[in-house]
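Human:
Class, as today's exercise, you are to examine the entry below, and be ready to discuss the fold:
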Amino acid sequence: MQVILDFLMNYWGIIGVVVLFGIELYREREVAVKRIRDLMFLAEEKGRKHILKTGEEKFNWVLDNGYAYMPPILKTFVSKDLFAALVQSVYDQIMKWADEHALN
C-alpha cells in the first residue's frame, strides 16, 4: 500500500495529465462518431441522387471524408483501418436501432 501511495505522490502531475488526455480523447471520439453519422446520412442522400450507387461506394465515401475531417488528436492514435472499423460499428448501431423500431 505504501508503494502505491509513494508512486502517486511522486508522479501525481503525470497521472493528472494522462487522465486529462484520456478525457479529451473520449470527447474527441464522440465528435468523430457524430461526424460519421452525419456523413452516413449525406451518403444516403447522394445515393438517392444516384451519385453513389452501391453500399461500398457509400462506405468508402464516408471513410474518406470522415477520416479527412477527423480531429487531429485522434489521427495520432487511429489508423484509417481502425477508422473503417469505427464507421462499420456506427453503421451497425444505426441498423440495429432501425430494426428495433421497425424502420428498416
In short: Residues 30-100 form one domain. The chain has a mean pLDDT of 81. The helical segments are 2-10, 12-48, 55-68, 72-75, 80-100. DSSP finds five helices and no strands in the chain.
